[in-house]
Specification:
Helix content of chain A: over 70%
Number of helices of chain A: 4
Distance between the termini of chain A: 83 Å
Helix content of chain B: 25-40%
Strand order of the largest sheet of chain B: 3-2-1-4-6-5-7
Number of strands of chain A: 0
Distance between the termini of chain B: 5 Å
Largest sheet of chain B: 7 strands, mixed
Order of helices and strands of chain A: HHHH
Oligomer: heterodimer
Largest sheet of chain A: none
Amino acid sequence: MSDRAIFALEIALVAFGFAVHVARLSRKRALSFKYTVGWISICLFGIFASPLVFLITPLANSLRLTPTALLIAISTVAVAVILVQLSVSISGNQRKMETLVRENAILRESLGVSIKDKKPNDAD
Amino acid sequence: MMLTSQNTLVIVPAFNEQESIFGVVQKVKQLGFNVLVVDDGSNDLTSHRAKAGGAQVLELSMNLGVGGALQSGFNYAVQHDYEAIVQLDADGQHPVNEIKNLIDKANTSDADVVLASRFLNENTEMDISQSRHFAMWILRVVASRACRTRISDSSSGFRLIRKPLLSHFAKSFPSHYLGDTFEALVISGRKKYKVVEVSAPFKDRMYGQSSATNKTAILLIFRALVVTSFGLHFQLPKKTEFRAD
């Protein structure tokens, strides 16, 4: 077996293991569907890209890159896209949480309900 | 619309200010204003003492920072049909008696924001380090350019904001340090909202200590400059010339 084949097999094994882990997280509902699709897509790319490296060799040559460098570049872009999407989600969730805290406070004020459990007599 | 003590709400964001909040609320109430204390997730008796002083209190279940607390107050003011708000610190630094000057200035100048400035009066003396003084000078220059008028105290937290700017800020407002003061000022100025200043003598804090040390303050000032220089802040709608009376 050539060095290139061994390398491709190693990458495929790691990607497969990662895909199994992502699938498990998804089944536990620890990962939303869109992130599951994103990560599984990257895993599939890792599994199949190395054995089919001859397919991208012409493109890599035209870009004056090695096929491996091109694969790494594509994977990096895919990961970056997921990370940007993740950042957008986190920022959006933070905004929603702050809005919820504010609206909760205004609602409680209108209902005259306090979240503090200390007696008002403790005040002074 | 003319601003009065009836249609202007005094908002006091407070975090663990149980020693000073009662006195601040009482002073404002004596002037005939409604007071809203926004308890920003305090774990002391801040909200009880504010209520004891006669304030309405919003209790945030977690700490959102001064800007987040203020935005809660802006929402409350808009929902209760106030025309303007005056923002006041809970630590007793701001001279409560100057609230009426802010309102008078807003009425005579038709300004959207009236800032109470520590530095408008040249004789004001405050204990500020050289590095912080330099950073504040840079902020003043940037804010003055954005507002097209001389701003002597761009980080003042004692100010009046009226509609329609108040309604816009109720929807979106920066919550981090200097976001609620300097950035909000720059954003307003760039969208042609009118900003004016009045002189106000600030006092030293009666209790507690400032939330930002000199080192962190310099870093946050740098951040504020980056945000405003590259326009990374949220966008306000442009001011329309007509204000309904």
